[in-house]
Amino acid sequence: MDLSSSGDVASVEVREIGGSKGKGLFALRKFKTGDVIFEEKPLVCCQFLWNQVYGYLACDYCMRPLETAEKNARRLTGNQDITVPYSQCCIVKEENHVDCPFCEITYCTDECRRLAWEQYHQNLCLGSSAGDPNHPLEKLQDAWRNIHYPPETASIMLIANMIATVKQAKDKAGAVHLFSQFCHKTVNEEEEIAHRLLGGQFQTQIETLRELTARALYEDYLHHWFTPEGFRSLMALVGTNSQGIGTSSISAWVKNCDLLDLPPDEREKLDNFIDKLYDEMERETGPYLNNEGSGLYPLQSSCNHSCVPNAEATFPYSNFALVMEAIRDIEPGEEILVSYLDECMRNRSRHSRIKLLRENYLFTCTCPKCEAQMDDPDITSDDDENMEEDNVDHSHQ
Length: 397
Known about the structure:
Blueprint: E1 12-18, E2 22-27, E3 36-40, E4 44-47, H1 49-53, H2 69-77, E5 98-99, E6 106-107, H3 110-124, H4 136-147, H5 156-168, H6 172-180, H7 187-198, H8 206-217, H9 228-241, E7 243-247, H10 249-258, H11 264-285, E8 291-296, H12 298-301, E9 304-305, E10 311-314, E11 322-326, E12 337-338, H13 343-346, H14 350-361, H15 368-372, H16 382-388
Parallel strand pairs: 9-12
Antiparallel strand pairs: 1-2, 3-11, 4-8, 5-6, 7-8, 10-11
Helix pairs in contact: 2-10, 3-5, 4-8, 5-6, 7-9
């Protein structure tokens, strides 16, 4: 089970910094704008359950899309007559796809199937019970879907994958230690985060989720994770540390098309086709066009927030591999900072930003931008009120 980070991780260092932040990630060398700071794979990840139900097909291990760009376009537009040009630019190779021989969950390659089986899938494989609504895992997933409606920000299967990973690990203590490195909150904060994750009307159903998880995956070695307090801690860990993952065969195809050396008239024709395609997809499907899920990344989770970040997480390989890129120059010894808010929300008032960060992450931002705007009125405009809930960057939740 290889759960290590990749890339030039010797160029960064996690340091304890005390206070409410606890720890942070610091540069050990200079990074210029556009440089890759580090790459890493998640300890665990999973697709969101409603995203899966709606037909978004992703590899169960690495989140790579399983639909060709053409099939993806046809489903998202509802138009089965669409023909996507330059098929050589599609990253999806259906001939490489394989199913689990027992439950028929699909992987993009046999390598992903093997890695999933070795790390966690033996404990999550439903075998011939796949689709049986009475199976404990099916009941757990159904309960989560009935509690956590779209747009999704987390999944109970992230916790299930954590438990299954420890159960299958030869070194169980080592596997538990890997998950213990993520930031933890106080008892009161854990309860607040867990409740926020489910929403006010579903707060009482944490116990239902705990009981269903125990029924499906109980392990004596992890008995502390299955207590009410331990399970709430798991919910808070996921709510605080999970990073959103989005992959799309259409966006990967568009990116590859941009690299084609085409005559001007062909380029114009292709660009017009792409513009029209995105218009049709948005009209038919709305803004949610990607395979969406979340994962736990040790280095990324060590990055603190700033409303003026110097780095951002990207997914250039159309799978779960996270690449942290510098979006401005970073000096040796400088803290690597990301934003928990999307770009639109970062441009709202200080009051709106702090309100949203407090509600979702339980801290008050003291970044240079917020400090400089301390004397601004503590009011929230009507536009801010309407946009706040839609503009949290759940990629870090």
